[in-house]
TrEMBL record:
Segment forming the signal sequence: none
Any GO molecular function: oxidoreductase activity, acting on paired donors, with incorporation or reduction of molecular oxygen
Annotated Pfam families: Bac_luciferase
Alphabetically ordered keywords of this record: Monooxygenase, Oxidoreductase
Residue intervals passing through the bilayer: none
Record carries keyword Oxidoreductase: yes
Luciferase-like domain sequence ranges: 1-294
PANTHER family in alphabetical order: BLR5498 PROTEIN (PTHR30137:SF8), LUCIFERASE-LIKE MONOOXYGENASE (PTHR30137)
High-level lineage: Bacteria, Bacillati, Actinomycetota, Actinomycetes, Pseudonocardiales
NCBIfam families associated with the record: LLM_CE1758_fam (TIGR04036)
Entry protein name: FMN-dependent luciferase-like monooxygenase
């Protein structure tokens, strides 16, 4: 099972001192957090994509390419690549280039995003969000698997005898996760292609997450990719830890109360009861995270959101130390002990390449 962190890259005022970091500080902080993820033994660092304040990650492959040059083992991913407002040709080229630079340590998560105005900024209509996601990914899927593509669709100009360059490393496209909070059409799309499905598992109650994952699993089996429990599932999570839970709640409360995504809504206690947000001790985080398996089954990737709401970099790095020292080692052991042998690991470039070569060898016999 893979463990990692994901970020939305928000630039938010620290409510405890009134200070807002500059964009430059926040960008450098994201890099520092990614390097820390490798240092403490995590598997994945994933960045969001946004094109509006107060967010800074407008060019994920630029940042991930920089991180790739400074890491050796970390899988570089996205917590959203906007399949609706990006050109599929540019996605194909950018991530194949990153694949080569990172020696295959790359995958990505497709999503529609949650900022409505981004659609007209890039010449699209938000009312076409689902059809855009379906058509654009169909083209991207072909661009990575066919050397020459002829294409005509509804949302972009036709392609004639087009070859996307560079070609995917070793002829193996990056693995794709389809991220969705509430759209069954995206779960269906992930199942159709045999790709992964990622639910961010932050703002919604477990019953909703369970329904979305169960839909994806049923349809994955329907399309013949394996049994439902072999479908590739990823979850998000949101935590804040201190050695004892009282200190964690006291320290996190002002960030929760003043963060734009929380302010004016349920109390911290109500939100932690109704959603997977966990504010407490490392053991409480372990227990809550292990409980995810009870409603989604055995899954392959767990990402934590840890650097949002104005938390200073020093605090985030302290959180990561707790995650790497006290939480993830226990979760690895416990999840592995419960997982049946037939449930696969999360795909990597190495495993996808091995599967491709085995299929080729079998066909040659």
């Amino acid at each position: 099972m893979q463990f990692g962190i994901f970020t939305v890259g928000d630039v938010t005022i620290d409510p405890t001192n009134g200070r807002t970091p500059s964009e430059a500080e926040r960008i450098k902080a994201l890099v520092r957090i990614a390097l820390k993820a490798e240092e403490i033994g995590l598997d994945v660092f994933a960045t969001g994509e946004h094109h509006n304040p107060p967010f800074v990650p407008s060019s994920p492959t630029t940042m991930l390419g920089y991180v790739a040059a400074r890491t050796e083992r970390l899988i570089l991913s996205t917590s959203t690549t906007l399949i609706t407002t990006n050109d599929p040709v540019k996605i194909a080229e950018d991530f194949a280039m990153l694949q080569h630079l990172a020696d295959g340590r790359v995958d990505l998560m497709m999503g529609r995003g949650n900022i409505g105005p981004v659609y007209p900024w890039f010449g699209q209509d938000i009312r076409q969000g689902i059809p855009l996601a379906i058509e654009n990914y169909h083209l991207l899927h072909r661009l990575w698997r066919e050397d020459v593509v002829d294409w005509e669709g509804k949302f972009r100009t036709p392609l004639q005898s087009f070859t996307s360059t560079p070609r995917p490393l070793d002829g193996v496209p990056p693995f794709v996760w389809h991220g969705s909070i509430r759209s069954p059409e995206i779960a269906e799309q992930a199942a159709y292609y045999g790709d992964g499905f990622f639910h961010n598992n932050i703002f919604w109650p477990q019953e909703h997450t369970q329904r979305m994952v169960e839909l994806y699993r049923r349809r994955f089996e329907h399309y013949g990719h394996g049994s439902a429990d072999q479908a590739i599932v990823g979850l998000g999570g949101q935590v804040f830890m201190r050695k004892n839970s009282q200190d964690a709640v006291r320290e996190f409360r002002p960030y929760f109360d003043h963060a734009p995504v929380y302010g004016g809504g349920p109390s911290l206690e109500e939100f932690t009861e109704q959603t997977p947000l966990t504010v407490g001790s490392p053991q409480e985080v372990i227990d809550r995270t292990l409980g995810f398996r009870e409603y989604v089954g055995d899954y392959q990737r767990q990402l934590f959101l840890m650097d949002h709401a104005g938390l200073p970099l020093k605090t985030v790095l302290e959180q990561l130390d707790l995650l790497g020292d006290e939480v993830v080692p226990v979760l690895r052991k416990e999840f592995e002990s419960m997982r049946p042998a037939h449930v696969p690991d999360a795909p990597t470039h190495a495993s996808l390449l091995a599967a491709k070569e085995a299929k080729k060898a079998k066909a040659a016999k």
